[in-house]
Amino acid sequence: MKIEKFEQLISWQKGKELSLLIYKILKDNRDFSFRDQIQRAVISITNNIAEGFERRSNKELKQFLYIAKGSCGEVRSMLYIALELKYIGEKDFGQCCNLALETARLLSGFIKKL
Q1: Which of 19, 36, 70, 97 has its CA 20 to 30 A from that of 104?
Q2: Which candidate, 41, 27, 34, places its Cα nearest to that of 103?
Q3: In angstroms, rounded to a whole number, what is the distance separating the alpha carbons of residues 14 and 102?
Q4: Is residue 43 part of a domain?
Q5: Is residue 91's pLDDT more than 90?
Q6: For residue 46, which of 90, 14, 12 has the smallest C-alpha distance?
C-alpha cells in the first residue's frame, strides 16, 4: 500500500494519540509555562511529520522526522519532571512515556527506510 497522506503514517497517528492524552491529562494544570512547553513539544511531533511529508522530498522529510524524534525526547524529559512535581500520576506517566518511545521507534524505522 502506497502512503499518500501523512494521516496514514502510524508514527503520525501515535503522535496524535500522545498529543490528545497529554492535553487531556494536563488540561487543569495551573503551571502554565510548564503545560505550554510540553504541549508545544508534543504538537511538534505530529506537525513536523506532516510538514516533512508534504514537502515531497525524502531529504527534507528525513530532516523533519529527526526534529519530530527530538520532540519525543523533549516530551519524555518533561514527563519525568511532571511525575516528580506530581502533575501526573504513575499510570499516566507510564502510558505517555510508552507512547513517546513507540513514536520515536516508529520514526527511527521510517528514517532508516528513507
Answers
A1: 36
A2: 41
A3: 8
A4: yes
A5: yes
A6: 12
- Specify the CATH number for the domain of residue 53: 1.20.1440.60
Question: Is residue 87 in a domain?
Answer: yes
* Mean per-residue pLDDT, 49-58: 96
Integer Cα distance of 111 and 93 in angstroms? 27
Q: Which range of residues forms the domain containing residue 89?
A: 6-113
Q: What is the mean pLDDT of the chain?
A: 97
Question: How much is the pLDDT for 21?
Answer: 98
* 1 assigned to some structural domain: no
Classify the phi-psi angles of 86: left when phi > 0, otherwise alpha if psi is within -120 to 50, otherwise beta: left
59 part of a folded domain: yes
- Alpha-carbon span 94 to 83, nearest angstrom: 10
**3-state SS string over 34-87?**
HHHHHHHHHHHHHHHHHHHHHCCCHHHHHHHHHHHHHHHHHHHHHHHHHHHCCC
- Asked whether the predicted pLDDT for residue 1 surpasses 90, the reply is no
